Amino acid sequence: MNKSELIKHIATTAGLTQTQATAALQAFETGVIDTLANGGEVALVGFGTFKVSDRAARTGRNPKTGEAITIAAAKAPVFKAGKPFKEAVN
Questions:
Q1: Residue 64 in contact with residue 33, Cβ under 8 Å?
Q2: Helix 3-14 crosses helix 18-37 at what angle (to 10 degrees)?
Q3: Which of 5, 11, 29, 90 could form an S-S bond across to 1 if both were Cys, CB 3.0 to 4.6 Å?
Q4: Of 55, 45, 54, 56, which is closest to residue 80 (Cα–Cα)?
Q5: Distances in Å between the alpha carbon of 64 and those of 61, 67, 68, 69?
Q6: Distances (CA, A) of 66 to 39, 49, 62, 70
Q7: For 23-64, what is each residue's pLDDT tens digit?
Q8: How far apart are CA 25 and CA 23, in angstroms?
Q9: Are strands 58-61 and 42-44 parallel, antiparallel or unpaired?
Q10: Dist CA 24 CA 35 (whole Å)
């Protein structure tokens, strides 16, 4: 399912127009991004949790030359599925 298919599904399920469903999805995306960017986390009980994870700096290899390179530390967004979500998938 891509973004436009998700918008159609939201519109049909919630009884909204596609414009309203698009606005709702964009508001959700913006809320999650803003919260994570400010160091918070978003927990949706029964669905999962969005949070930021720190990745330590590490050494890697350039596959073309074999030369060792340093990969800088970074922050990465992480999603951990909740128990009901995991059970529904399995």
A1: no
A2: 120
A3: 5
A4: 45
A5: 9, 8, 11, 12
A6: 37, 38, 5, 13
A7: 999 999 999 999 999 999 999 999 999 999 999 999 999 999
A8: 6
A9: unpaired
A10: 17
> Residue 53 has which token pair?
């994870």
Please name the amino acid found at residue 57. Answer: A
CB-based contact 41:49 (threshold 8 Å): yes
| CA distances in angstroms from 36 to 15, 27, 51, 74, listed in the order given | 30, 14, 6, 14
Tell me if 35 sits within 8 A of 52, measured CB to CB. no
Q: Which two tokens stand for residue 22?
A: 């698009």
Token match 């606005």: residue? 23
